Amino acid sequence: PARLHCPKATASVPLALVAWSVVLDQHVPRHQDQEKDQAPGGVPFTDIDYWVFTDAARFVANGQSPYERSTYRYSPLLAYVLLPNIWLSPVWGKLLFSAGDILAGWMIAQIVRRLGASKRGATLAVAAWLFNPWTFSISTRGSCDVLGVLLLLCTLLCLLKGLATSAACAYGLAVHLRVYPIIYAPSIVLFLAARSLQRVQLRSRAKGGTPEARELDTQTTGSPLRRIHGRKGWEAVLFHGVIFGVVSGGVFFALGWIFHRLYGQQFLDEAFLHHLGRKDPRHNFSMYFYTIYLSYYGPRSSGVAMPGGDPVEAMLLAAASAPVPTDDPMTNLAVAISSAVAPLIEQLTQPATLAFVPQLVLLAGTAWQLHEELPLCWLAQTIVFVALNKVSTAQYFVWWLSLLPLVLHRIRRPVPRGLVAASVLWAAAQLHWLGWAYMLEFKGWPVHLGVWAAGVLFLAANVALLCMLLLGFQSDGEGDKGSRVKTVQQKPAESTSCVGSFLTYSL
Q: Which of 67, 42, 37 lies closest to 55, judged by CA?
């Protein structure tokens, strides 16, 4: 176990992979305009996004906008961070991301120790991150996701230390760099409110049985639903929501204002708005893949031109569907309103838009039930978000794999059989999907429906894994001290079983 903390032993793995990537990429040259991670000579080790980052950094080094590089849809900060790719060496970014993995391991150790884990539990948590095959392979291929992971771990560590202002600054930067951390905002506010109520309750109890103390006791005992019941609870939520929102929002909007001044509307379109309306017709783990694929390329009865369609036919359809003005002003008004509302209704009923509905419902439910156990809450929310997202790729798994080590010391011992079975099912379902994806991508076989069915099975595996994690989680560890923020005394399975049942029913 001591060697897990040895820098030489930890750094040897990413350094070897970075060296291997340089050798392999020399035999599989990349293409500048290549959009797939594939070249005529084979599959390169380095992810195509890494070359997109590097090209964006080259534009910045030349005094131009990073968005001159097509498909660059990230914050300009990333291009600035990778400027040494141009000035020093193209492997700078990979070394930076790999160093971020090691730093993330150190932060995981700090968090789990603060949560009450033993030295052995902390060592296992660090090993689960550093020696996870996903971790170094993703970063050494050039994925920047570890930067967002670092900011989120920093946010969590500051929250556990009571440094709300520092946590808000790190959180604002995390949302600017990668939009998805916005899903944690409700749970953070509820966590801060619950901790504030605990302090108020302790002070009131010290006064000795005052009416205020009795009122707070009824509001701050029991389940999380009762914790913020009543005027004082909602006042705490509102107060901490405003304070945290002002600080984190100030960081977010300040960076947005600076880059908007530099790069204009294109910055907003590419860095943020693109992700809200993104439609990816290519195969991915999402269960929405096939529906989006059909709506993206297939004909529509409404006469809306789809990508790849005949422009002349689109013009004829638009002319035929244009409203004909009449002499009745009320009729013309009704036609104008319907013409304005119809596109909005059509957009709201698109599969890519409807995909947000189950996400929002489940994210709100997990934040409400699990906000007291913040690492577990973030883990559950991230699994829900990735599994139900309209686009889901293997790189997204790093988002929740970085949070998984934070709860491992709280899993019941021996590990429940259901959790082991769910983990095996998750891995098997992923391999099953990869088999169909291989036939589609490399063989060119028309197996889109099979890829979609494999994605649905993979969603079921994600739900099973999350439910087993929630049911296997305990509030008082057998080998470690409990890591719960002790604001209440509650049955350990009360909130987790509720969320597990909710997820199963939703599937």
A: 67
